[in-house]
């Protein structure tokens, strides 16, 4: 399928890197941090208990589902208070979490493909997560990062896609949203008027009747290859005599 792509919006977690190993590492890092700085909290909330508290906090605060950082802070605050620890530990504990959250291991294809894609068209990160591209070290490949916390609503809300298109200065129909989640990324973007590209690494079946992804690949390299054959070349830099 050929159509003009003038810009790309890109999901992060489970598109550029798997999140499950990050989540497991975060749980252990936080527990180890609590063992040193608040042993009573570590004793009351071993890894599984802290995980259960986080799930309950999420379920109890649907108005904050777009803001995972706020939900994490609520979880940590409750654990500290319930165990008799001071809330002066809240921000240091959050920083321990956030440092671990931004230690990512890219899918083998992702980083090279991302460089190729960013050389072709402007790329904006649009994510419901709270990764920090500058900490990860790839911020220079993106025109900007728009998170659900910053915007105030999470994908698949059409507004976050529209806001990204507006910042890119590109019409919805010429922006390709790329992500791993069939609903939040692909179907959500297409309902908002964007093109949708499904990075389906695990061969999941498509279940949205009446709607098909514009593109589908099992790696990000597939998209980079497609762009090589379909995207316009970037403009040449102006020479000294221009």
UniProtKB/TrEMBL annotation:
This is Haloacid dehalogenase. Pfam families: Hydrolase (PF00702). GO terms for molecular function: hydrolase activity. The lineage of its organism: Bacteria, Pseudomonadati, Pseudomonadota, Gammaproteobacteria, Lysobacterales. NCBIfam families: HAD-SF-IA-v1, HAD-SF-IA-v3. Keywords: Hydrolase. The keyword Hydrolase applies. It comes from the Bacteria.
């Amino acid at each position: 399928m050929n159509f003009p792509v003038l810009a790309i919006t890109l999901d992060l977690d489970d598109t550029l890197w798997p999140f499950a190993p990050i989540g497991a590492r975060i749980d252990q890092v936080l527990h180890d941090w609590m063992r040193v700085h608040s042993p009573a909290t570590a004793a009351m909330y071993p890894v599984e208990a802290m995980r259960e508290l986080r799930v309950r906090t999420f379920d109890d605060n649907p108005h904050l589902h777009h803001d995972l950082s706020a939900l994490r802070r609520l979880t940590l605050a409750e654990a500290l208070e319930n165990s008799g620890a001071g809330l002066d530990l809240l921000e240091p504990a959050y920083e321990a979490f956030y440092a671990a959250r931004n230690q990512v291991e890219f899918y083998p294809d992702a980083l090279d493909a991302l460089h190729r894609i960013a050389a072709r068209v402007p790329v904006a990160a649009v994510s419901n997560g709270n990764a920090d591209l500058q900490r990860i070290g790839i911020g220079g490949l993106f025109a900007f990062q728009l998170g659900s916390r910053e915007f105030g609503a999470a994908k698949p809300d059409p507004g976050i896609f529209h806001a990204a298109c507006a910042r890119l200065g590109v019409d919805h129909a010429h922006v390709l949203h790329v992500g791993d989640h069939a609903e939040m990324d692909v179907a959500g973007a297409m309902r908002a008027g964007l093109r949708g590209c499904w990075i389906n690494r695990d061969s999941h079946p498509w279940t949205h009747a009446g709607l098909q992804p514009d593109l589908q690949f099992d790696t990000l390299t597939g998209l980079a290859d497609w762009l090589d054959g379909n995207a316009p070349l970037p403009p040449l830099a102006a020479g000294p005599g221009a």
